[in-house]
Each structure stands twice: as C-alpha cells, then as structure tokens.
Amino acid sequence: MSDKASVEITSPFSGKIASLAGAAGDMLKVGSVLCSIEVEGGEGEADSAPAAAEPAAPEPAPAPASSSTTPSSTTPSSSSSPSRSSNTEVLATPATRRFAREHDVDLSSITGTGRDGRVTKEDIWKFVSEGPSAPSSAPAQASAPTATSTLTAPAESTTIPLNSTRKAMYRAMSASLQIPHFSYSDVVDVTEIERMRLILASNIPLQYRKTLKPADEATLARQEQWTGAARVDPTRQFGRITLLPLLLKALSLAMSEHPIFTCTLSPPPSAGPATTDPSLVRRPTHDISVALSNPSPAGGLFTPVLRSIDTSSVFDLASRLAHLQSLLPTSGNGAPKFPPEYQGAGTLTLSNIGVIGGRTTHPVVPPTGQLAIGAIGRTRVEPRFVDEARAKRVASGMEEAGAAELKVEPRLVMDVTFSADHRVVEGVELARLVESWKRIVENPARLAA
C-alpha cells in the first residue's frame, strides 16, 4: 500500500462498535487495536483487523446491555510490547522502510522523530552518517553496524579548466555554428579497392619499408646510385598500407571532376563577420586535411593538411600519414607539433571514424574556409547480388527469375557521410562529388592510370 492510499476494510464480524482506539485523523501503530465490536453471544474478538484505515465517523457507544443480554466478551487486546523487536513493529512509511532496506538499517535501532514516534528518512540518514545517538530499546541486527560503510556523503565536483588545445577547439566549433550545414550519405563497396590495397601492401618500394633484407639493401644502394631515390626518413617508413591513402587519392580524382571543391571561402568563418563580399579562392593543387585525435590525456582534434595529393603516389601518401602518426605524443599531456608542410587548411577534410568502430557520423565543417568534410565508417561484410541490375529487373517484375539463378556473394562495404557549407555549395554539387568518388572507389583501376 502506498503512503497516499485510503482503503475501506470490511469487518469479519457483525455487531456494534463498542469503542474506538482513537479519534478521526489519529495514527495508530501497526498491530495495535483499531476498535472493539460488540457481537451477539460474545463470540470471537474484534481486534483481528489491524488495518491503518480509519472509520468514516465515530459512533457513540451503546447503552449498557440489559441483564437478559449477554455482554460482549470482547476486550481490547493489549498493544505490542514496548520493546520493538522487528521492523514491522516500527511506525514508518513504505518508502522509508524501502530506504532502510537499501542501506541495511534495522528500523528498531532508530528512535523516530516524526509524529507519534514515526521513523523518517532523515532519521535513517542521520543514523547511518553519525551512528546511533542513544541506546536502542532492542538489539540491532548484525547487519546494522556495517551500514556506516554503505552510505557516504556526495563527492564534491571539481572544476577543470580547458587546456590550450581544447580552447582552440571551443573557438573553432563555435565559429562553425555560423555555417549552415547539410549532409549527404551513401554506402560504398570497397571490395575491389581492398584487393588493390593488398597487392600494394606486398609491393612497397624499398625506400619506404621499415625493414630491409641484405639483398634489398644492395638493390636500394644501386637505385640510389642511378636514380638518387634515397631511403626516406625512418619516421616516414611504414610496414603496411591502410585504405586511407587510396581513398584520399580517389577523392582527389573526384575533385578534378568537380573543381568547386578545390576552392576555399574568403573570408573564412573563423575571421568573424565579413566586411567584404565573399569570394571563392581556387587552389592549383588538391589539398585535403585528415582528422587526427590526440591520444595523450590532453586530448584534442587536429586536421593537418596533405598538399598536392593530385601529384602524389599512394605510397607517398602512406609515408606522410605514417609521419603524422609519429608526431602524435604517446605519453604526457603535450600536443603534437606539426612541421610547416602540414600546417594550414585543405579545401576538404576526410575523417576516418572506422578505426574506432563506428559506422556513421555527421561531421562538422571546420571554419577554415573549406567547403566540405567527409567521414568514413568501418568496413563490414554484406551479401550483394552479383548481377545487381538483373536483380532489380526481377524485383520490379520486368523480368522473371527463370532458370538463371540470382547469385549472391559477400562484399566489403562502408558507410560515408559528407557535410558541406550550404551558403556556397548546392546539394546536387555535393551529391555529384560523392557519387564520383564512389564510382572511382568501386572501380579503382583509374588510380593506376
């Protein structure tokens, strides 16, 4: 029963009310006498309904029975013993009892400060925080002494000032609020470009490799003698190739088809309210920024730029990405220090959330004047029809399945989402860029052209 319930309880006896244990509005202890009922023949006792409900209105006691009437043998039964030996004999609301159970407190160990000795939540809180203030009338249960260790005062909050990196993020993202964003999402089949990646990974040029066999050392020495192609710095060497350099190269080819994305907006949003008419500045090279998260406790998101991707090989891009990774701090609270070649902003940014495990996100355009940003999710396997065009015709009823079975094969797919600055980029322009990039990724032979 809740604290707010009011329930009429039917008496198990027929007769007249001889006396009431209290006036209307009084609180009676659980187990005490509610009323005495005078029954014919003196059968039974009427105190068998220890309910907390109160009668609608008290009735006056009847006149003494005549000598011919057998007086009721009912007498008010005595209340419980003054010593409280269990929780059920303590006056407390159900909510308070639940609070006591949650903190392993025996209600009989607490002297209530509420009306008629009622135990309140405040009494329990004081008991577990300070311990009993007076000897209990009944021994506490064995679990009560441990109550002091189950409830502690709430911990105080701590103010942590933003470091310089997060302050820069705060300012940049606040400036990005000026940009009206819109997004375009699609699913890209990366099966073929992944097969190309595996081929390239097994044919890394000697000058980029982390380790060389003695025969490779001799071969590289001859190459240096004739071509001057010296081995790159160790921080730019790598042992494997990820999909990212291939995706960057494919995006550069798509930018050639949609030159608006080789432009930046002037003045950029980070410069504040424009004092001159806005314009687009087209760059002669394809410069794409990549999003990197600082792994140190200082945190922070950085977007160093890879310049001239249109004239760079996939191996060169992989080398520069390896160099960027080497610049990220692995301990302490420092921020990475990028050399001038990586400083500045690109005309696009590509963020790889797939390394964390996510499938989809909606990236925010940085306020550097670039027009769009893309995010790629994790690669996963999905069943696809080998002849998707025929599968569409069969599904639409234009062709019957017939004897030729529709074959299904596993394919590697990846979710991609691009966001753009809608002040200067039309929705169809972003859609065409993404579809061109998707077409190149799904047919990567153009990367070798």
UniProtKB/TrEMBL annotation:
One of the GO biological process terms: cellular respiration
Pfam families the record matches: 2-oxoacid_dh, Biotin_lipoyl, E3_binding
GO molecular function: acetyltransferase activity; lipoic acid binding
Enzyme class label: transferase
Annotated keywords: Acyltransferase, Lipoyl, Transferase
InterPro entries according to UniProt: 2-oxoacid_DH_actylTfrase (IPR001078), 2-oxoacid_DH_E2_comp (IPR050743), Biotin_lipoyl (IPR000089), CAT-like_dom_sf (IPR023213), E3-bd_dom_sf (IPR036625), PSBD (IPR004167), Single_hybrid_motif (IPR011053)
Xref: CDD domains: lipoyl_domain
Comp. bias intervals (Low complexity): 64-86, 132-157
GO CC terms of this entry: mitochondrion
Region named Disordered: 41-115, 130-157
Transferase is among the record's keywords: yes
Its EC number(s): 2.3.1.-
Cofactor(s) needed by this chain: (R)-lipoate
Residues annotated as domain Peripheral subunit-binding (PSBD): 91-128
Family: Belongs to the 2-oxoacid dehydrogenase family.
UniProt protein name: Dihydrolipoamide acetyltransferase component of pyruvate dehydrogenase complex
Organism expressing this protein natively: Rhodotorula toruloides (Yeast)
Taxonomic lineage: Eukaryota, Fungi, Dikarya, Basidiomycota, Pucciniomycotina
